[in-house]
Amino acid sequence: MASDIPWLEELGGLSRSGSPARAAEAVDKLTTLFLEQAPRLAQAHVALFDEIILRLARDIEFQARIRLAERLADSAQGPPQIVRELASDDRIQVAGPVLERSASLRDEDLIAVASTKSQQHLLAISRRPRLSEGVTDVLIERGQAEVALSVAANRGARISEAACAKLAERAKADPGLAGVLKMRQDLPAGMIALFVSIALVHARKTLEAEFGHQDLDEIVEEAAAAATQASATASLTDNLSQAFLEASRANKRGELDERRICEWLVAGRVDRGIAGVACLARIPVQIVARAFHAPDWQPLLILLRALRYDARTFELFLTSRAGRRLPPALQHKTRHAFLDMPIAEAEAALKKILTQARGGPPSGASKAERGRDS
After folding, report:
1. Residue 329 shares a structural domain with residue 369
2. What's the mean pLDDT in 14-23?
3. Are residues 282 and 222 in the same domain?
4. Is the pTM of this model over 0.70?
5. Which of 66, 68, 123, 220 is most buried, with most CB under 10 Å away?
């Protein structure tokens, strides 16, 4: 590489007296050489390429800058100064390729562009394979509807709780955004339930406009079941199998009961709590997970009341679901709702759920039924 350096410096000199056409030709040659040699270049050589290409690129015409951006966008170690300058170009045709694809841009570079440039620039950033919370915070703060939807649909975008709350507000008026958000698998459980409920509100409005009010409750219930089933185990998908195995082992040792389930919930082991309920009741763990993640707390109430759990256990599940202690008024409301529901009514509802889930008569639908069978 050392023998190439005098030639690079000579090419760099073309920018001082050459025409835009000659500068563009020099940039093309330098870029080709850089891309060929990049894996073997020392940091000092990368910096030299960077300085010369940067100087030459300021004299080239629009189409030549687009071509340069396209060529450098996929380089694993593109010259950082020229990449940053291209990313900051007001013309999205130049900035777009590097904003979407260049690995040379740091979070601070992306945040600087997202904080000052156009919606098209924000949209290009939102399509990157990976986005940190710091970058998505700015995109959601400044981005309009198309940008917000693009961030929500990007599985490689990490979204902070604060940004999630802002998206929830937007989703109330944007059914497309609500629908995309409810399918993400990396959001807090409470947020997933919220987005499902928002999506269902939009669905109901659409149905009312199309069909009037006939049989809407049944239609929306079916939609709710389908939507909740799609996202119910989202935050626990990776843990439920292992948690169920651990709960089963505890059950075989005679150590699994309601007290142990409460201990797991207090310790933050919601996955074990869900698996423990399923194991004791001999029902599919997905049904317990769906009840836990449902848009409201009624399915969880029905399930735990049918299985004759204590109101305190129900409260612990609700606290785990919300991620914080319930307000006193809500504690009072949910406790009374739990105790006021007749156990026989809850058992009948759970039996119906299990029948629908299994396509036939349920086995082990409740503790009471198991006792009668034995």
Report:
1. yes
2. 67
3. no
4. no
5. 68
